Amino acid sequence: MVAVEIGYVILYVRDLEASAAFYRDAVGLPFKLRDAGYAEFVTGETRFGLLERTRASDLIGREPTEGGPAGEVLFLVEDVDAEAERLRGLGVEFLSGPVDRPWGHRTLHLLDPDGFVVELAQKIPRLLPRHG
């Protein structure tokens, strides 16, 4: 099998209302739909969804494991500094940034209500050449 595109990214969340508000208000994703413990947002070609953790076993046959952040979701934005200013106004706490990265992104990291790492990234010129 060769995967040709990402169809969905779904995060299993404890509090659907709090998480939906975070991705709508802090990240700025347009809300698409809500149905039985699920919320979905418009993100271009890839669907981004939130599913209540208590309903995850219906999909995967077991309860999702607890623990700290096990990954991150990256959203490309036009202006990371403008987003940082807007998020400060909302009282959102940053993990890091905004900072220029050598691989060609200016990044800002924060946590969503369930502890998932959210990265906002703006494309900038690369500081390091590609290898490989």
Protein architecture, described:
β6 and β7 (105-111) form a beta hairpin. This protein folds into two domains: 1-66, 2,3-Dihydroxybiphenyl 1,2-Dioxygenase, domain 1, CATH 3.10.180.10; 68-132, 2,3-Dihydroxybiphenyl 1,2-Dioxygenase, domain 1 (Roll), CATH 3.10.180. Helices cover 22% and strands 36% of the residues. The mean pLDDT is 84. The chain is globular, with a radius of gyration of 16 Å. The protein has helices spanning 16-26, 53-60, 80-89; strands spanning 8-13, 31-35, 38-41, 47-52, 72-76, 94-101, 105-111, 117-123. The chain has 132 residues and is of the alpha/beta class. Strands 1-4-3-2 form a four-stranded mixed sheet. A four-stranded mixed sheet has the order 5-8-7-6, covered by helices on one side. The longest helix is centred in the first third of the chain and has 11 residues, at 16-26.
Beta-strand content estimate = 35-45%
Distance between the termini: 24 Å
Question: Which value, in Å, is the CA radius of gyration?
Answer: 16 Å
Estimate the helix proportion, in percent: 10-25%
For the biggest β-sheet, the strand order reads: 1-4-3-2
The parts where pLDDT drops under 50 for at least 5 residues are none
CATH topology value of the largest domain:
2,3-Dihydroxybiphenyl 1,2-Dioxygenase, domain 1
Q: Quote the average pLDDT.
A: 84
Described by strand count, sense and barrel closure, the largest sheet is: 4 strands, mixed
| Global geometry | globular
The topology string of helices and strands comes to EHEEEHEHEEE
Structural class: alpha/beta
The named CATH superfamily of the largest domain: 2,3-Dihydroxybiphenyl 1,2-Dioxygenase, domain 1
CATH architecture tag of the largest domain: Roll
Strands, total number? 8
CATH class of the largest domain: Alpha Beta
Number of domains: 2
Specify the number of helices.
Answer: 3
